[in-house]
Amino acid sequence: MSSLFREGPSDSTRDDRLATGEVPVAVYGLGKMGLPLAAALADATGNVTGVDVDESVVEAVNAGDCPVGNEPGLPALVAETVADGSLTATTEGEAAAAAAAVHVIIVPTTLHEDGVPDLSTLRAVLGTVGAGLSPDDLVLVESTVPPRTCEDVVVPLLSQASGLAPDAFGVAFCPERTASGRALTDIRGAYPKVVGGVDPASTRAAARLYEHLTDNEVVTVADATTAEAVKVFEGIYRDVNIALANELARFADDLAIDTREAIEVANTQPYCDLHDPGIGVGGHCIPYYPEFLASTFGREAPLIRTARDVNDGMPLLAVRELGAALAERGIPLAGADILLLGLAYRPGVAETRKSPARPVAERLVDLGASVSAVDPVLEDADGFPVDLLPLGAVGEGSFDGVVLVTAHEAFDDIDWTAVGDTVVVDGRGVLDADRIPGPLRTIGDGRAR
Q: In terms of domains, do 40 and 143 share one?
């Protein structure tokens, strides 16, 4: 078994070893980000073992099936790499760790109820990796974590679990920069790959692997903490930028303008890069990453906190817009029949974590409304106080109000004439006003309609 951690032979020999499977890789976590990474690494290196605690996931992968949906090219790549022996899967993490020279960790990190980062899954995986860790192994963390996690958590836990000195193995942080629905494209080089190790040898070794995987540039930074900060900073920037756009959108009625038009033209100036306003920010990234900084170091972070408050307040703003439009028709929210278009947090992705549809639905129910929903990418509405209807029901039911939360492509074909003269709130600014027979209120558009 060959190692990447220590200074090795020439570049050409190194590339040969990576391409022929002489450097065995274990990927821990075969979820929607982990499986695409494992398959791409298997295609590039020829020797990857994927580790997951879910037996059904492992069985599916070993059968050449893809348990992750809506990822173009992934089913074919999983089938191909399993068939040629480049990719296998197991629930036996310690055995996989003992056989590997490179360990890539890509498991979820989230928040406790009090907002403190929850690294329990990462810690459990570190124990597994440490039990099979050998001298000169390289451990790469792709999971998003609070800055200083590699220095303060990863290295000490690996050392404790393995019995090895901290300098006997390599550790680097290499953040995933991948979006659902385009994972293989992103992994293979849509963006530069960021690499930062706890020491120079770890940085060099990590860069070697990713240079073999990506067609884009590999950017090495000073240390693992800097690399961790890069990922968290990216998420915080987007959250704060969206919050600014959302706050500007609140002036739309006062100004009687379409905020999106003003933003689009403002962005023609090279120093301006405003995002779009909308009904809220969801998903497993942006709503969580600000706390990875703000809740970890005991410092005040008023801008970060305010941005979170602004974005979290947008679903309730949409409810107020709906209530005001219904009131103009003499219809109270109590007893009204409301339809939500979309429960997923983003178009085309079957993920509801932190979806703005949840607070919209909960607030409407609290106010006495009856709430139904349509979402073409979801099979159920678990966790939402709504009745899930088929897409065809949009034009068949009689609703007092409709709120577009998620701009799924399937909604482009809605026959709004069949929907009738009902109040519509567009939370994403995507609906064509000429196609809406009844009153239309668009978040961020203050022009009379």
A: yes
Per-residue pLDDT in tens (0 to 9) along the chain, 449 residues: 456 666 554 555 556 678 788 999 999 999 999 999 999 999 999 999 999 999 999 999 999 999 999 899 999 999 999 999 999 999 999 999 999 999 999 999 999 988 899 999 999 999 999 999 999 999 999 999 999 999 999 999 999 999 999 999 999 999 999 998 999 999 999 999 999 999 999 999 999 999 999 999 999 999 999 999 999 999 999 999 999 999 999 999 999 999 999 999 999 999 999 999 999 999 989 999 999 999 888 889 999 999 999 999 999 999 999 999 999 999 999 999 999 999 999 999 999 999 999 999 999 999 999 999 999 999 999 999 999 999 988 988 789 999 999 999 999 999 999 999 999 999 999 999 999 999 999 999 999 66
| Residue at 73 is within a domain | yes
Please tell me whether residues 193 and 331 are part of one structural domain.
Answer: no
Domain boundary among 222, 244, 276: 222
For residue 29, the domain's CATH number is 3.40.50.720
Are 17 and 129 in a shared domain?
yes
Q: Please report whether residue 3 resides in a domain.
A: no
Range of the domain at 352: 225-449
Q: Give Cβ neighbours of residue 220 (< 8 Å, ≥ 6 apart).
A: 195, 196, 203, 207
User: How many domains is the chain built from?
Assistant: 2
Q: Is the pTM of this model over 0.70?
A: yes
Pair 344, 298 in one domain = yes
Residues involved in catalysis: 231, 285
